[in-house]
Amino acid sequence: MAVAAVIAPQGTTFTCTPTRVWDGDGPVWCAEGPRIRLSGIAARESDGSCRSNQPCPRASAEEARDALVRLIGRPVGVSREGHILVSGPAMECRSEGGAGGARTAAWCVSPKSGDISCAMVRGGWALRWDRYWRGHRC
C-alpha cells in the first residue's frame, strides 16, 4: 500500500527511508510519506535537459540519478513508471518547506554517504544552486 505524499513543514526534521528515485535532485520517495526534492542543488532533468532558470551540470541525467541511488542505497529494480527502486538506510532530513507539487525541499544526511546535496555537488553530478543553497555548509 502506498503512503500518501506529505509536505513536511519548514524547519522540521524527519526520517526518510528511500524507496525510489526519479532523477539526480529528486524526488526521492520516502517510505514514511514525503517525496524529497534535494535542497540547494540542480541536476539535469530525466530527459537530459536543463531548465533555463537553473544551473546545468555536465553530468548526464542518468549519471546523476544513478549516483544519487548509490549515495542513498542500492538499486533493486525499476518501477513501471521508470523510477529506480531503492533499498537504503533511513536518512535524517530537515525540511525547507514545499518544493512544488507534492514535494518537500530538504537537506538529507545518510548514514551511508553523509550530506547528500554536498555529495552530489562534490561528485560533479549536480551543481550548487546559490538561490537555494542559503549558506549551507558541507
Summarize the helices and strands and which ones pair or pack:
Blueprint: E1 13-16, E2 18-21, E3 28-30, E4 35-38, E5 41-42, H1 61-72, E6 74-78, E7 84-87, E8 91-98, E9 104-110, E10 114-115, H2 116-122, E11 127-128, H3 130-133
Parallel strand pairs: 4-9
Antiparallel strand pairs: 1-8, 2-3, 2-7, 3-4, 5-11, 6-7, 8-9, 9-10
Short description:
With 138 residues, the chain is an alpha+beta fold. The chain has helices spanning 61-72, 116-122, 130-133, and strands at residues 13-16, 18-21, 28-30, 35-38, 41-42, 74-78, 84-87, 91-98, 104-110, 114-115, 127-128.
How would you portray this structure in words?
- The protein is α+β, with helices and mostly antiparallel strands and 138 residues long.
- The chain has a single domain (13-133), classed as OB fold (Dihydrolipoamide Acetyltransferase, E2P).
- It is 17% helix and 33% strand.
- It is built from three helices and eleven strands.
- It has helices at 61-72, 116-122, 130-133; strands spanning 13-16, 18-21, 28-30, 35-38, 41-42, 74-78, 84-87, 91-98, 104-110, 114-115, 127-128.
- The strands form two sheets. Strands 1, 2, 3, 4, 6, 7, 8, 9 and 10 form a nine-stranded mixed sheet that branches.
- A hairpin with a 3-residue loop joins strand 9 (104-110) and strand 10.
- The longest helix is centred in the middle third of the chain and has 12 residues, at 61-72.
- The radius of gyration is 13 Å and the shape is globular.
- The termini are far apart.
- The mean pLDDT is 94.
